[in-house]
Amino acid sequence: MLVHLMLELYGCRREVLTDAPLLRRVLNEYPGQVGMEKVSPVHLYDIETSNPLDAGMSGFVVIAQSHISLHAWPEYGEVDIDICSCKEFSQEDAVAFAQEMFQTEDVERHFVVRGSRSLRKAPPDPEPLARALDARRERQTRGSAKREEISGRRWIARDS
Active site includes 86? Predict the structure, then answer.
């Protein structure tokens, strides 16, 4: 099962929505605020479009359970946040964090349950999980040995 919380926050101040360090902080801290595991750095982009009113900042962070993204439109005083996860989380905590960071009480929220036929279980079945962990350790061991073997060789570049 996959849950998707979509938030639209209105009435945000322009200087908040153009503050790149703040937006990075929001994306960096959001996983911890909702009990998720962050597995990537924050990606944040300053977006210029053919319509300058639609320009703004967009970013995301990958979490072990899926992703968290945001899109901020300073000209409209709006920020949209998506939290998509196969792990349940507190919607109230997610909303409260967004309200605190973007200094607004005007929030529209939508919640959708997706992937109802997914074979992925939470928590995972113990036996397949144990096999997968053993296979990962084996790959890591082989990869480590391979890296040591390669780093021990001397490579000479030759002109052809």
Answer: yes
